[in-house]
Structures are given as C-alpha cells and as structure tokens.
Please model this.
Amino acid sequence: MVMMYCLKFISLLLLIDCSIAAMMDGFEKRCEGLAIAFCQGPDKIKFYSYLEDQTYKSMEAQLKLDGHAGYLRLEKSGEYASQYMNRIEKELFSRAGVTVKMVDQQMRALPMKLSEVWSGPAAEKKLIQDSVAGASILSLGQVLSKLWNSDQELKFKKYYTNVYVGKCNKQDGAYGFEYNAFKIDNHNMFTKQKIFSELAGEVLVYCPGVILGSLQNSKGPEQFIDGLAFVLGHELTHIVDISKQPALYEKWSRCIKKSFTFPEHEKALSYKELSSDIGGINLLMARLKNLPPEEAYRALRRVLAPWLCLNPSSTSFSRKRLEIIGRDPQVIEALGCRDQAVPLCSIYPTN
Model:
C-alpha cells in the first residue's frame, strides 16, 4: 500500500514538473504565436554561445600553446587557417554524431528538396528548381581546402583565405565561430573559374559557428540536421529572395508592409531576410511535419530560439521574424493550432 502511494506521489510530481516545463517554454501559448512565450525558459534552451564550448576552448588552448605565433599564423598563413578550420569542423561533426560525408549528402539534397517542398503552383516550383539547380553548400573548411589544393599563386590563396575566414570570425577575434553563412560571388573570375570551376551553380558557405549552433541543442544526428536545414535553407533561398524574384512575393510583401514597419534604411534588407525564411521554414517543417505538436514545438525552439531569441525586445527584427514564422501555415498545422490561429502574410495560395 505504501509503495502504491509512493508511486502515485512520484507520478504526480513528474506531471507537475512536466506541466511547469511546458509553461516555461511557452508550449501552452503556442497558438498565440511563437513571439509570445517562445523565448521564455532560458534554462531549457541554450542560446548560441561559443565561449564555454569545449571545442572553442580546446582550439584557443592550442593557439596559446603555440604562443603569439599561433595567432599570427592564423592571420598570415592561409594554409594554417585551412587546417585550423577543418580541425574545428571535424571535432564539431564528431560531437554531433555525424561525418563530413553524411552532412555532404544532406547538403547536396537541399536544392532539389527546396523546390519539392515549396507550397505553390507548378510554375513557381519550376522557377525555384531552375534557380537553385546545381547550387553547392560547403563548409568553410571544405572551401579553404579547395583553395589551398589549387595551383594558384600564393598571394591569391592568402587573400581569399582572409576574405572567407573574415566572414566567419567574431568581432572579439574568435576565429570561425560567427553564426553565419554566405554566398561566394560567382561573377568573380578567380573564384569561379580557378577554384570552383567544377561546380555548376551558386556556392554557399557555412561557418563553423553554424555547426556549433545546430549542435548546442541537438540530441543525435537527426536533430543536428534539423538545425542545418533551416539555416542553410534560408541561405539557399537568398538565390530566389524578393530582391531576385519580386513577382514571387508580391502578395506576401503587400501583407508584410501592412503588418510591420521597418526603418526606411532597413526595409530592403529586412524583406530579403524575411523572404528567405520562407524557404528555410519549408525545409525544416518537411522534417518535422509528422511529429506530435509538443515535439514539433520543442524542435522549433531547438532550431530557432538560440539565435532569434537573443534580442527579445518587442520591436526587434528577430521578434518580427518569429511572429511571421509562427503564423506559417505549416507551423500552425504542426503545432495543432489550425482552429485557433490565422496564417499571417502567407505566400501560399488560398483556396
């Protein structure tokens, strides 16, 4: 009898604990929109941070062991920088339970997958498919390896190493840990014809910081790939964002203009980023659509909160992005909110 009461008491405690956790991370308010309570409960999610990360610490320790020359070699010797970035990536991938080959397979599939999951008429899908066909998504380490394995002059190798690594460095000097991805200018004669000549389309590059950001809240390879899918899906969609294909976003952009205000000097960039979120969320929700609502919500927090919750201000651009993503038709469906939430600024055709 005593054992039975003990078990009931323990079950009650677990139920209370789960209820408190759900309230803390905002699940109960999910249908009000992701911007409402999504960023609460910081003890349940790790916001993007590298300073306490074991890989960052080990790499910094190695540089200190090398003395001041280690930092100079990173800035002056591109070949050393290439080896350094590849070592960071290898360690982070290993911690995520994946290999470079496994990630490459996923990245090669993203361009075709983007056109498949784009919710729109066949003509739009064809436009997306043609625009991103042949695009390559590479890690910074892979790009630097290509550069240093080429037969180009040393001065060019050093110059482009500094350009690419610079896009991945934090302002405080942390090498490679900026949460960033970028597109290599294919119109540049050197980079396209001399280094990436075998690649037919656009070349997108993701920094080690993106790998770390996807790793911090993941448990296992699938959750890790979820994080990469959104961030790199977003970057891939920049190939067909509103600045490239304005007609594709005509209805959507009218709604955005009515619903949100942006400083005049930020409007063009804001619309580009928001339109690229559409592709990112399409790819992510294709991976999450069969999960129960609570699991889908937790997955969205793992992927989005680490960087969209860094500035919780009600007027911040991140907050506006969360409001729009939270009203995406696929997100509403996955969170079980079809009868309680109305899509906001949908790009999708309505019947």
Remarks:
- The mean pLDDT is 83.
